Amino acid sequence: MSTASAYLRVSGIDIDVVHKDIKHLHVGVYPPLGRVRVAAPKRFDEEQIRLAIVQRLSWIRKQQKQLQNAPRQTEREMVTGESHYVWGNRLRLKVVERPGRAHVEIDGDRLVLYTAADSSVESRRSVLERWYREQLKQALPPLINKWERELQVTVPKWTIRRMKTKWGSCNRESRHIWFNLELAKKHPNCLEYIVVHEMTHYIEQKHGERFARLMDQRLPDWELRRNELNGAPLAEEEWSA
């Protein structure tokens, strides 16, 4: 039986640590972003775990690099029949070519893109990206407001952007939070997990035991949500930070 999870940060790498009734320490690097998880014997203290991680840093970085360079799903051509994800649901794209303003709507299990007949693939992708961004802009304010009350903190500024290796980021000095545009494709529970995670950094900077305790208190199923997020389908298109 495992005990409560903890966090460590070693040489710039965030490590999830779980103590278990096992004899040997195990290190795993998991897709899609190269999350590192350590299962350690209960008798191991933090320094022993840190030493074991340092000894495996070369292997960990190699595994992370392989995951980051792994081919993603083929770049979308923005034609009828393609699969696209919206809030964790897989929808089929339907392209409707007609004059007028290009925009996106959901119709049942279809994601409908209205666009001009001569529109390019790039312009169609741009329309869909703006739509995803709008979904997040609508979903984030009520979540942030809710957790400002729960955590008794204030978020002065937040931004949606493309990020290659992080779902979210927080500058503790400026209190500026960034959210990955890809979150609009994931289940809403995953978005709330990132909101709480980044806002908790206002209270505790490091991914240590205190951070894990705070997450346990505020969002008891945060580990399930994190695992769901990290196990979600990779982006359909290539993108960079």
From TrEMBL:
- A Pfam family cross-referenced in the UniProt record is YgjP-like
Q: Which InterPro entries match?
A: UTP_pyrophosphatase-like, YgjP-like_metallopeptidase
Q: Which residues form the YgjP-like metallopeptidase domain?
A: 29-230
* Official protein name in the record: M48 family peptidase
Q: Which organism is it from?
A: Gulosibacter molinativorax
Supply the source organism's classification: Bacteria, Bacillati, Actinomycetota, Actinomycetes, Micrococcales
